[in-house]
Specification:
Radius of gyration: 17 Å
Strand content: 5-15%
Helix content: 40-55%
Number of helices: 9
CATH superfamily of the domain at 50-192: Cobalamin biosynthesis CobH/CbiC, precorrin-8X methylmutase
């Protein structure tokens, strides 16, 4: 079978295809590498229609990472999608979903493990980069925490996915980001691959 086999060539052609098929003029220059990596991660070139962000999200997240910020994720898949060699300060990636305390907190609070895991972010949350790639309840719980506690992350990269709560949680973030730089994708679409891609784009600096 005749198909492209060189990894570098596949990578380059992928990004060339995205640039040739997608109009990016309405996307700020520093957001474009992020948008391109999101499309590369999911194969959907129409996602720029639903992309929402604060103007300072790339700068804020990048500066935080350079300063050694921790990365908080909602699931192991999102954590696995982060390319560690791109992180500018060998930043610690933390996922508390499988912490032994999490199921106990979930039962006590009457919520999902994903939401309960946010309770364990308290000592890490201030100036962290929050990356959500799976659970809408994580984003809801984070927003509730930000309304009630003084901690402030450096940025929120929110891509929860699904048919229950995903669209609603991301709309809530977009409507009121609590003064925190953010990027999200409105609607049901999202996922760990997108969440990891967002971090990788920002960590890589100017990117592609």
């Amino acid at each position: 079978m005749d198909y492209l086999k060189d990894p570098a060539a596949i990578y380059e052609k992928s990004f060339q295809t995205i640039r040739s098929e997608v109009e990016l003029a309405h996307i700020p220059d520093d957001i474009q590498p992020l948008a391109i990596r999101l499309m590369h991660a999911c194969g959907m070139t129409d996602l720029t229609n639903d992309l929402r962000f604060s103007d300072d999200v790339v700068r804020a997240a990048r500066e935080a990472l350079v300063d050694g910020a921790k990365i908080l994720t909602d699931c192991e898949m999102a954590a696995a999608g982060i390319i560690r060699r791109l992180l500018p300060a060998s930043n610690q990636v933390i996922c508390t979903l499988n912490d032994p305390q999490t199921p106990l907190l979930a039962a006590k609070l009457g919520t999902t493990r994903s939401a309960a895991a946010v309770e364990l972010w308290e000592k890490h949350l201030n100036q962290a980069v929050v990356v959500i790639g799976n659970a809408p309840t994580t984003l809801f719980a984070l927003l509730e925490r930000l309304d009630a506690a003084p901690e402030r992350p450096a940025a929120i990269l929110a891509f929860p996915v699904g048919f229950v709560g995903a669209a609603e949680s991301k709309e809530a973030l977009h409507q009121n980001p609590r003064g925190i730089p953010y990027v999200t994708l409105l609607g049901r679409r999202g996922g760990s691959a997108m969440a990891g891609a967002a971090v990788n784009a920002i960590a890589a600096g100017a990117g592609r």
